[in-house]
Amino acid sequence: MVKPPDFISAMTGPLDEEAARNMVTRTPQTQALGFQFVSISEARGAIRVPWRADLVGDPETGVIASGVVTTLLDHVCGLSIRAAAAVPQGTLDLRIDYMRPARPKADLVADGHCYKLTRTIAFVRALAHDGDPDDPVATAQAAFALIGGGA
Amino acid sequence: MSGETTPAERLAAFLARTPYIAFLGMRAELAGDEMTAILPFSPHLIGNTLLPALHGGVLGAFMEMTALAQLAVITGGPRPAKTIDVTIDYLRPGRAMDTYARAEIKKAGRRISSVHVEAWQEARAKPVAAIRGHFQTPTEG
Predict the structure, then answer these.
(1) In sequence order, which residues have a C-beta less than 8 Å from that of residue A131 and are 6 or more positions away?
(2) What residues of B are in contact with residue A98 (Cβ under 8 Å)?
(3) Angstroms from A96 CA to nearest CA on chain B
(4) Best A31, A55, A70, A100 residue to mutate vs chain B (most B CBs within 10 Å)
C-alpha cells in the first residue's frame, strides 16, 4: 500500500503540529500563495502570508489583493476546525468584511477560532491583520459542513 | 461613466493592471455589455488534492474579481472599486476544470454598488458558488 501524501493525512488524521504545518503548506494553492504555518491551539489556528508583488490587487497602492485574504481566511477557518478535532468537508458560506486596506507591502496573518461544533456543522470566526490583531484588515464568519456529519 | 473608452478597453485595462488576476490566470470576454469571466483550470488552484477540488478561496476570489471587472466595465474610472464585504455561498465542489462566472450589478450607486455573481463549470444551471457583495466606488482624481 502506498503511503498517502502528507497533505491527505493532514486533512483527515489527528492534528499534531506537523500535520497542521502540512495542511497549511502542502496544498497546491496554499503553496502557490506562500502560506506559512504560525500556530495551533485548542480550536484555534493561525497562518501567515508574506507580501509578494504578484499577489497585489492594486499596483498603485501595493496592497495584497482581497482575493488572497479570502483564501487565507477560508484556510485558517479549516485549520481551526481541525484544531477543534473535527474534519471539515467543505465551506458552506463565508462572509468577509474588509475593515481597511492592509499597509503597502505588509505580510498578513490570519487567526481563526472554531467556537461551536455540532454533529454536522462547524461555526468559525476569523480575522486577518497586518501586525495588530486589535486593528484587523478583515474579519470573517463561516459555516463548514463536517465529514461524517451526513451533511 | 467614461465617454472616452469602450467597455472592451476598460475591461482589458482592469485585467492588465491587477497582478493577482495574472496569478489566478483569469480572463474575461465581453458580448455587448455582458461579461463572462473565465478561470482556466490550472494545478496551482487546487485546494484539495484528494477530490481533487479547487480551493474554496480561489472560487470566492474569482467571483470577487468578476464583480470588480464588471464594475470597471460599466463605470470605467482609472481606479478599481474597493470591496466592502462579500458573502460567499458554496453550492457544489469546484472540480479540476475551467470555471466561468457572470456578475449582475443590482445597484450601481454613486458611492456604493451591490453586485451578485454566480460561478459554474459544466452547466450554468448548476452553479458551484455564488457571492453577494458591496463595493465602494473609487473617488476620482
Answers:
(1) A103, A106, A109
(2) 82-85
(3) 5
(4) A70
d(Cα A66, Cα A25) in Å, to the nearest integer? 20
- Across the interface, whether the CB atoms of B57 and A29 are under 8 A apart is answered yes
Gap from B104 CA to chain A (nearest CA, Å): 19
Amino acid identity for residue B81 in this structure? A
pTM summary value: 0.93
Q: What is the mean pLDDT of each run of 10 residues along chain B (141 residues)?
A: 77 93 97 92 93 95 96 82 96 96 95 97 97 89 45
pLDDT of residue A9: 55
Give the three-class secondary structure for A118.
Answer: coil
Taken in order B3, B7, B13, B14, the sign of the CA dihedral is positive
Query: Per-residue confidence at A11, pLDDT binned at 50, 70, 90?
Result: low
Question: Measured between CB atoms, does B136 come within 8 Å of chain A?
Answer: no
Three cell numbers, residue A103: 499597509
CA–CA separation, A33 and A30 (whole Å): 5
Check residue B133 and give its pLDDT. Answer: 98
Query: Is B51 in CB contact (< 8 Å) with chain A?
Result: no
Instruction: Please indicate whether, in this complex, the C-beta atoms of B44 and A31 are within 8 angstroms of each other.
Output: yes
